[in-house]
């Protein structure tokens, strides 16, 4: 079960090397509630702030920036020629992305799932350089992160979280007038759950339903969130509107546009999400070619996957302004402007 509303989890649960001190941050209790302490700056940023309490920044200056990268999907395996996946090349590509990110004033970097292709023994090759950097990396769980023995077995969520350094499979935090929600879209489905569990059974039911409707996303590698997680998300989105916070969701699976890699309940979910005025964007990985669409004034951005292609990389820097999010793409990732739309639904 994820954290209840108002409980904010430590962003860097893994032990950090000395070189990471400039960005080391921990959740802490403050006089105004739950906050984020930047230990080297000796300041506490209260997270329960409204738009009116946020410092005024010039419209042509970003409020803050963060990094985005998806599907490094490392394995000590030969190239999958048919799928154009270059597993070992992810080490070099990640190193290049980190070097570029470190030139930017980033508050955090989100990896949008599939840290490895299979087997948690491959995790240190990706996580160690992230931890050794000056960056504050946040992790999203991907379907491949649950796969072991070359894809013939499934790790349980607690094992995956421990290996990747997460306290919970889904979590949230607020920063400078924005709420960020990190989901586990593998919670229900057939590829990242144990047979015989309620989550696996619900995944089988959804697969049958999607296939009966002849939709393109009726594939076993897709999943969705469970009822408890959805109720938690609903509480966060509702509270964000009441607190005058704008919201970005980070997830592994896409919701829109239609695609064979989308969540199993993508059509129903995107209509449900449109009912929350605080939601500005859903940002995900999983679909390695990348994608973008806007549905009922919510932006849906799919980051291209790092593991794809031999020599080309894919990642981005997001600059958050009062009225927009500028996505500065690198290499295979296009640059885009996501306009903030004030919605009253």
Helix content: 10-25%
- Alpha plus pi helix count: 6
Number of DSSP strand runs: 19
What would CATH call the architecture of the largest domain? 4-Layer Sandwich
What is the molecular shape? globular
Radius of gyration: 19 Å
Main beta-sheet annotation = 6 strands, mixed
Distance between the termini: 29 Å
- Which segments are poorly predicted (pLDDT under 50) over 5 or more consecutive residues? 1-55
Tally of discrete structural domains: 2
Tell me the strand percentage band: 25-35%
What is the SS-derived class? Answer: alpha/beta
CATH superfamily of the largest domain: Metallo-dependent phosphatases
* CATH fold name of the largest domain: Purple Acid Phosphatase, chain A, domain 2
User: Largest sheet, order of strands side by side?
Assistant: 6-5-4-17-18-19
- CATH level 1 class label of the largest domain: Alpha Beta
The chain-level mean pLDDT equals 85
Set out the fold topology:
Blueprint: E1 25-30, E2 33-38, E3 43-46, E4 64-69, H1 89-101, E5 109-111, H2 123-132, E6 137-139, E7 147-148, E8 153-154, H3 157-164, E9 171-175, E10 178-182, E11 188-189, H4 198-212, E12 223-224, H5 227-242, E13 246-251, H6 266-273, E14 279-284, E15 291-295, E16 298-302, E17 314-320, E18 324-331, E19 336-339
Parallel strand pairs: 4-5, 5-6, 10-13, 13-14, 14-16
Antiparallel strand pairs: 1-2, 2-3, 4-17, 7-8, 9-10, 11-12, 15-16, 17-18, 18-19
